[in-house]
Design goal:
Blueprint lengths: L2 E2 L2 E2 L3 E7 L12 E7 L12 E3 L2 E2 L4 E2 L8 H4 L11 H23 L21 E9 L3 E4 L4 E8 L13 E3 L4 H16 L9 H21 L1 H11 L7 E2 L17 E2 L4 E2 L1 H6 L7 E2 L16 H33 L11 H24 L11 H15 L7 H11 L12 H4 L28 H25 L15 E11 L5 E16 L9 E12 L5 E7 L4 H16 L18 H5 L3
């Protein structure tokens, strides 16, 4: 255990934040404290993974950096939540960003990484850190920029026409929305683990990113028990209800504020942001429309399309919550723990909050863990469903509470159809091993080094990790070249195979067993015309590859492929890019003058 001046360093740093945003005031647990993993911090704050840089480009000024290691700040668990103090804004983005990283690292079973920045020198300021700009510009937007290696938050004037809880013309800071910070951090975290999932290969590409970021942001509401308690009291334990019951129930027309119902903030995303724009509602919601299996075929806008996947995941979550708490509610009613007016006994509310938070943590883990089971390119909703089922069944084979069944049913009802499967059964949806699809079983990759270095000296650890990484890169390249066909790769020497990312995974299963795997991404690419029949057609980089998961004995367990030789995939991407070129409105969701390009989150998030 690390020590300083003879004292043991803490494991966590309590920091105060808004659970939702400033408009929620102190109600429903909005003023809360997050136990952030402890690390020494420079003013900013600047830590090992994050660097908060408070430069305002619109006003060309730096704001004073918060010193979270100052004794006056440490003893108070951070600064008091404040809309007017830029130092609290810096604390807020650091705390929520760190908590989002914690969720990812716990689920993935390894330290996260950021996208590599070509040409970045090791002695450059903030090298190896994700930069966060709390007041980057004066605009109703916030986005992750892969090229800058940064997350940028804007601020704007609320509309003068019905701005919700904000004053007309009030300045609204996107960095003070818990949802927006978690959403943008999720974009950065996905990109760091799977860089080419941001390729604009079809309508699901941007929609998947928006859906996954919304899923993580919304689930963080439900992992905070204190924020849950008020909602449980005002919904009778039915936390999925879109509206909260009045604090006082009279049955007559409302005469005072406590007799009014209001929207449920637990199922809304970025309420203050959406209302300040004049939409009279939150930016997005986790529920609201009944399942429709035909809707997916009609939507292309990333947020609208992504909302289908968000609804499916939360339908499964609420289904499990109802099933896991039905006995509590039944016992409570028999013992009069629920009054005639629907009020819950405090002990019952506490138990329901604990159960809801625990289930939410499990769903976050299932979703994040599935990233390792996704194909390396050309992500589709059906692929994510298969990744969810495979990842969870690998760790929890028996599924005692029916999580996988709930996810499958919710996705089926919303028309999420995986390719190349026989049915919606769990067995059919699991990814197959090479031997299960009629291919020879590849040999183990004996040369892989699964070690995770835990040296006390940071530089020694970094040097050892770099040496292991170089060794594994060569071992994987040689292995993939020798076994290309059985790994779903093109054996043509002209199609260079790149071991793009690779890392060991160490997880603990529910029965306490240590599960050790190794996941690697193999990529190939070539240039293809958008319209082969048109002379001088624009071209795009067509990518293919496989995600390969190795077991504890270095054996191949899964090959999750999107082959570069698959002509059907090529035709679909050519059609998508042709439609993008012909429809300027659609081209707003990809970086301009690039075919193809990665999803441009600045343009996707603009105006929403």
């Amino acid at each position: 255990m690390a020590t300083k001046n003879g004292y043991q360093l803490p494991t966590a740093r309590p920091l105060r934040v808004y659970a939702f945003d400033p408009s929620a005031g102190r109600g429903l647990g909005n003023y809360m404290t997050i136990p952030v993993r402890y690390e020494p911090l420079a003013p900013g704050p600047v830590g090992r993974r994050l660097a908060v840089v408070d430069y305002d480009a619109s006003n060309e000024r730096f704001y004073e950096a918060v010193d979270l290691d100052h004794s006056a700040v440490l003893i108070a668990n951070g600064l008091e939540p404040s809309e007017s103090d830029p130092r609290f804004h810096q604390q807020m983005v650091y705390a929520v960003a760190s908590d989002t990283i914690r969720h990812f690292e716990y689920a993935l079973g390894r330290p996260i990484r950021w996208r590599r920045q070509p040409g970045s020198r090791r002695d450059a300021p903030f090298h190896g850190r994700l930069r966060i700009f709390p007041h980057a510009f004066q605009q109703a937007n916030a986005f992750y920029d892969a090229e800058l290696g940064a997350v940028l938050f804007g601020y704007f004037r609320a509309t003068t026409d019905d701005p919700g809880e904000a004053l007309p013309g009030q300045t609204v800071f996107t960095c003070l929305s818990h949802d927006i910070v978690a959403h943008e951090m999720t974009h950065a975290l996905i990109d760091g683990q799977r860089e080419y999932l941001t390729d604009a290969t079809g309508p699901d590409a941007a929609a998947f990113h928006e859906a996954f970021a919304d899923i993580v942001a919304l689930f963080q509401h439900f992992t905070y028990k204190d924020a849950l308690l008020g909602t449980i009291h005002r919904t009778g334990g039915l936390i999925y209800k879109p509206r909260l019951d009045p604090e006082v129930r009279t049955g007559d027309q409302a005469a005072i504020t406590p007799e009014l119902s209001e929207n449920n903030p637990m199922v809304e995303l970025a309420r203050e942001f959406g209302r300040a724009l004049g939409t009279r509602s939150a930016l997005r919601q986790a529920i609201g429309t009944p399942p429709n299996s035909n809707l997916l075929g009609t939507l292309t806008e990333p947020h609208e399309r992504g909302a289908i996947l968000v609804s499916a995941v939360f339908d499964a979550y609420f289904t499990i919550y109802v099933q896991r708490t039905r006995d509590l509610m039944r016992i409570a009613r028999a013992g009069a723990a629920v009054s005639a007016e629907g009020d819950l006994h405090p002990d019952l509310a506490e138990r329901l909050a604990s159960e809801a938070a625990r289930i939410a943590e499990q769903f976050v883990n299932i979703c994040v863990r599935a990233l390792d089971y996704c194909p390396p390119v050309d992500m589709q909703f059906g692929d994510f469903l298969r990744a969810l089922i495979t990842a969870d069944s690998d760790l929890v084979p028996d599924d005692p509470h029916g999580y996988r069944a709930a996810l499958i049913k919710a996705c089926r009802l919303r028309g999420i159809i995986p390719e190349r499967v026989r049915s919606y059964s769990e067995e059919a949806l699991r990814w197959c091993g090479p031997d299960e699809i009629g291919r020879p079983l590849p040999p183990p990759c004996e040369a892989l080094d699964y070690r995770i270095i835990r040296w006390r000296d940071a530089q020694s650890r970094a040097d050892a990790e770099a040496q292991i990484e170089r060794h594994n890169a060569k071992a994987l390249h040689d292995y993939a070249t020798a076994n290309a066909e059985v790994l779903g790769l093109d054996p043509d020497p002209a199609r260079k195979i790149e071991a793009h990312s690779f890392h060991p995974i160490h997880r603990i299963s529910p029965d306490g067993q240590l599960v050790i795997n190794f996941v690697a991404e193999f990529l190939q690419q070539r240039t293809a015309p958008v319209a082969p029949s048109v002379p001088n057609s624009p071209t795009f980089t067509y990518r293919g590859g496989s995600t390969v998961i190795f077991g504890e004995e270095h054996e191949v367990r899964y090959v999750i492929e999107k082959s570069i030789t698959n002509r059907s995939r090529l035709l679909k991407q050519q059609g998508f890019h042709l439609r993008q070129l012909e429809a300027p409105a659609g081209a707003a969701y990809v970086a301009p003058q690039q075919v193809p390009s990665q999803v441009n989150f600045q343009l996707v998030h603009r105006g929403v």
